[in-house]
Write a structure and sequence with these properties.
By secondary structure, this protein is an alpha/beta fold. Helices cover 41% and strands 22% of the residues. The strands form two sheets. A six-stranded antiparallel beta sheet has the order 1-2-3-4-6-5. A five-stranded parallel beta sheet has the order 8-9-7-10-11, sandwiched between helices. β3 and β4 form a beta hairpin. It starts with a helix and ends with a helix.
Length: 302
């Protein structure tokens, strides 16, 4: 016997599902509803949301009629739903396994084709390309010079997932648009493009991003939380002298700050104050020396 909690758990386990605030439950993918609480009409009284009855999207009239005629104790409809590809499901009449099948089928008929294809690929029990088979956002953070990009690239290659770097986006914007505004405006424009690129990725992705304490934390936390439910933060840790030496040893131009005394001092201070964002599971990694990527992958699959 299934219930509303089972509906919620199963729906939220599917990719890119959002829950609309409701007295019952209401789940959507790409802004399209696929399962929600039945709003029962009562003559002369306000509608009542039935948490024990789910409205399911079934695709077409033929499927609807097949369910209604084949299992009348399980499915029903009302005149208000005539002509709509929807049926009502009595949750107490199905077990969780059957409910999972029905909810997933409803999601498939409403989700974009790319998402459906990703779900099919993620059914591979090997979990290749993601942390434990889930669509995971792996956020590689740390101070400038901590080795974020090196770690992010190697991790993405090992997992077979896309890699997105905020620095690369900033460099592209700077070179393409001959950017003349200040660095903060460039940073904000790059964050907008970061969202665009993450939205285009179906499944897991590795992101390399520098998050300045206090200045960026709240804004980036909000941005990333909207991208995936499953987030792992990989924090690159190095001593201040290592970060400063690495930064000073690189050729800096375009949107990057020069390796002058002021910038190097800011990096030293950042090492002392840098903390994880706290938006998901955190893995701290010593990147002052070569990193065992296989070991990092193993920690992603606890």
């Amino acid at each position: 016997m299934a219930d509303a909690d089972d509906v919620r758990r199963l729906a939220l386990a599917l990719p890119h599902v959002s829950e609309i605030e409701s007295d019952g439950f209401d789940f959507r993918v790409a802004d399209k509803g696929f399962v929600w609480s039945y709003p029962e009409r009562r003559p002369g009284r306000p509608r009542r949301l039935r948490a024990d009855v789910a409205v399911l999207f079934v695709g077409d009239e033929a499927e609807k009629q097949a369910l209604l005629l084949g299992e009348p104790d399980v499915f029903f409809t009302t005149p208000g739903y005539d002509g709509l590809p929807l049926v009502m499901l009595r949750l107490v009449e199905v077990d969780v396994e059957r409910l999972e099948e029905l909810v997933t089928d409803a999601w498939r008929m409403r989700a974009p084709a790319a998402l459906v294809g990703h779900l099919d690929r993620s059914d591979d029990p090997s979990g290749a390309g993601s942390a434990g088979g889930r669509a995971t956002l792996m956020v590689v953070t740390g101070v400038p010079g901590a080795g974020k990009t090196t770690l992010g690239l190697e991790l993405a290659k090992a997992l077979g997932v896309p890699f997105v770097s905020l620095d690369s986006i900033k460099e592209s914007l700077y070179s393409t648009d001959a950017w003349s505004r200040d660095r903060h405006e460039l940073r904000l424009a790059a964050e907008v493009e970061l969202v665009v690129q993450l939205d285009a990725v179906v499944g897991s992705v590795v992101v390399d991003i520098w998050i300045a304490p206090e200045r960026d934390t709240d804004r980036i936390t909000t941005l990333l939380r909207k991208q995936r439910r499953d987030i792992v933060e990989l924090v690159c840790r190095v001593p201040a002298d290592v970060a400063v030496e690495r930064y000073a040893g690189r050729q800096r131009s375009g949107p990057h700050r020069p390796a002058d005394a002021s910038t190097l001092h800011r990096i030293q201070e950042a090492v002392e104050h840098f903390e994880p964002m706290g938006i998901g599971r955190c893995i701290e990694i010593d990147t002052s020396r070569p990193v065992d990527i296989d070991g990092v992958v193993a920690r992603l699959h606890p």
